[in-house]
Structures are given as structure tokens and as C-alpha cells.
Amino acid sequence: MWGLGAALYLIGFYQRVAPAVITRELMGEFALGAAALGNLAAFYYYSYVAMQIPAGLLADRWGPRRVLTAGAAVAAAGTLLFALAPTYAAAGLGRLLIGGSVGVAFVSMLKLAGHWFAPTRFAMLSGLALACGVLGAVSAGVPLRFMVDAFGWHKVFGVAAALTGLLAVAIWLAVRDDPAERGYASHAPAPPARHAPVLASVRRALATRNVWLVFLISGAVSGPALTFGGLWGVPFLSTHYGITTSQASMITSLLLVCWAVAGPFVGALSDRLRRRKPLYVLGAVLATVGWCLALLVPNLPLPLLVALLAFTGAASSAVMVGFAIAKESAPAALAGTAGGIANMGNMLGGMIMQPAVGWILDRRWTGTFANGVRVYDFDAYRAGFSFMLVWLAAALLLLAFVRETHCRQTQ
Q1: SS3 of 188, please?
Q2: What whole-number distance in Å separates Cα of residue 109 and Cα of residue 397?
Q3: pTM of the model
Q4: pLDDT value of position 136
Q5: What are the residues whose beta carbons fall under 8 Å from the beta carbon of 195, sequence distance 6 or more?
Q6: CA distance 59 to 64
Q7: What are the angstrom distances between the C-alpha of 383 and each of 35, 38, 122, 152, 358?
Q8: Under 8 Å CB-to-CB from 14, ≥6 apart: which residues?
Q9: What is the pLDDT of residues 308-332, one digit of tens each?
């Protein structure tokens, strides 16, 4: 049940990170600068973020099975459009469809976890969800680069569209919203006799302080990993550390792998300690230190840089604890809505940071080209990455106001 939802989340992460590996092809084929490329990658985030609250409401009302099936079907159509896109506008529309459709996956997974697993497993499952997603991101690293080199990016994304369509069929046939549909006892509280109006549900969830604090903090903690690993890390590393695109993809994939591997352990540790806030704070502080060293200090020895990025990725996995905080702080009947709000904030970081870094790079560009593609110097990247770090520093201040839930439903 949960695994098929996780498969759509895996595909969503693959689509999120893929532009980082084909930046050269996209910039050359559509004649893009950094700002335009950042916007093309961020089209995914625009629709993904916009779908988070609706996805939570739909999961609460229609159930994860219907929502996941529809999401996978639309994702398949968007991927096919992106693969066949003759123009920048068509490619952008494809990215919009992909982002909005896979945006239902994470919230639906959380909803399924609340029904099919004991509450004491929720934070661990949130971490496992991240692990599944980052597995998709890793497949969009070196493996995608090899496939693009061998077959071309259009054919590779065409195959991805077909596989996503098959997943839609599998979800409809196999997934059930609640164990009661298969004759088992459910872990979820009894559903309300009737659902409150949509806006009233959103207002009620946002009236909980922890929910909107997690909304603001999550984007700052996950945004640098999504921005560096999902778009700007590969050109930065290949330009300023003299390595190939494939080697740079391996390093950004390592960052994401460490993020994924650490997630379940952080979640399980939080469940075991019955504490949420200390791990969230510790992870955010360590991530801030790691990003400052890796992005602002020039000419680091490559082994040290790789170790820093791996460490920072692992520290950033603490963001998953925030989903448990949001779910436990909101009314139980609004678990999907609270999860959608939290994930909306989570993706807000990548949505804003990716094009913002590109915009700053274009402002700092010195006019250098290499094989028809713009090349940006280290000072330009440092200025762009500094924007991410300022947001992260502000999130550390907001963490002080988050209330501990002690791993129990407070409403």
C-alpha cells in the first residue's frame, strides 16, 4: 500500500533533480541563460507547491488511492509533453504538469502511513519516504547522465512517461485507503461524521502555531539541498573544481543519498526518544555550518568538499521531523491538510531558491562562454548561494518558537 505511493514520490524526486544533469542540453537546445534555466526547473516547484494544500484536502476527503492514481496519470502525460517539447513554452508546461501531479504523492503517503502503521512509526516512515524520494534523485544523477549520453534526453524521458503510466494502473489495482478494506484493524482515528468546509479546514490547521512555523522552517532547511543537488551543484562543481559532469553528478548524488540514508534513522531516533524539537534544531544548525563552509570557502580540497557535502546532506534530513511535528500538532482529522501545508513550505525553498540563484548568477555574469553555454565565476556562485544561507539563518531563529509534541497527537 505504502510502497506504491512511495514509487510515485520516487518518480517525483527523479523529475525534480533531472534538470541538473541535462543543463547543457537544455541551455543549448532552447538557448537559455541561468535565469531562464532556473525558471524552467522551477516550473515543477510552482505547481508542486500550489498543489500541497489541495492535495491534503483531497487525501482527507477522497482517499489516497484516487489521488495517487490521478497524480500518476497526469505525471505520465506531463513527462511525455516534456520529452517531445519543441519549444521552451511546451517544456515549461510539461514541467508544470509534472510538478502538480507528483505533488500529491508525499501527502498521500503520510495519509496511508497514518492508517496502515502505528503512530509510533510515523517519524520513521517520514524518513523512509525521504529515502525513497532520494533514491529517485540518485537515479537522476549518474545513471541518467549515462542514459542521456547513450540515447538522448528525449527518448529517456519518453520511457519515464511510459513507466509512470504503468504505475498509475498498479496503484488503482492494489492500493486501499484503510486496512478495514482488507479486513484488518485500522490505526487511524474514526473519521468525522462530515468534513468541515475547505477554507475552514485550512484555517483550523493554520491556527496551530507549529503548523505554520514548520511551513516557514522546512523550506529553509531542505531548500539548499534541493537547489544545489537539484540544479546548480553540477555546473558549480564542474566549473570550479575541474571535474567532469558525471563526476559532479556523483558528488551531488552522494549529498542526496546521505540525506536519504540519515532520514529514517533520525525519524526512528525521534520516535524512540519521544522528542522532536532537539533533533530538528541540531540538524538545522549542523546543516547551516556545513553549507557555509562548502559554498563560501573557495578552493577547498576536493575530498574535504565531498565530506562536507555528505555531512550537510545527512544533517538536512532532520527536516523530516517537521512533518511529524505538524501532523501531531493539528487536529487528527486534518492530518492530510497539515501534511500538505508542511510539504508546501518544504518545497517553497526549492521553488524560490533555484530561480533566485540563477537570477543572481546572470547579474554577476562576466560575459564568458564555453561551447555556447554561459560560465559563471566563483564570486557569482558565492553571491547566489548566500541567498540560501540567509534564509536558513532566519529559520534557526524561528525554531526557538516551535513547541515540543512528545510524539503524541496534541489535538
Answers
A1: coil
A2: 30
A3: 0.72
A4: 85
A5: 60, 61, 201, 333
A6: 5
A7: 14, 16, 38, 33, 11
A8: 136, 137, 139, 140, 144, 160
A9: 999 999 999 898 899 889 888 888 7
What ranges do the domains of the chain cover?
Answer: 2-176+198-399
3-state secondary structure of 374: strand
Rounded to whole angstroms, the Cα distance separating 145 from 19 reads: 11
pLDDT in tens, 22-47: 888 888 888 888 788 888 888 888 88
Note the maximum CA span of the chain: 66
Q: Count CA within 13 A, CB hemisphere, residue 57.
A: 17
Residue 250 is inside which H or E element, if any? helix 245-273
Assess whether pLDDT exceeds 80 at residue 8: yes
| pLDDT value for 213 | 93
| Strands (E) located in 51-115 | none
| Residue appearing with cell numbers 529517456 | 156
* C-alpha cell belonging to residue 21: 544533469
Of the candidates 376, 318, 404, the one whose C-alpha atom is nearest the C-alpha of residue 127 is 318
Is the sign of the CA dihedral 291, 92, 131, 396 positive or negative? Answer: positive
For 370, the 3-state DSSP assignment is: strand
| SS3 label, residue 164 | helix
Q: Which residues pair with 370 in a beta bridge?
A: 373
Residues 256, 131 contacting (CB under 8 angstroms): no
Average pLDDT over residues 43-65: 84
Closest CA to 324 of 400, 406, 261, 397: 406
- Residues shown for the chain: 411
CB 247 within 8 Å of CB 305: no
Q: Which three cell numbers stand for residue 148?
A: 542521456
Higher pLDDT pick, 214 / 260: 214
Q: Look at domain 2-176+198-399 and name its CATH class.
A: mainly alpha
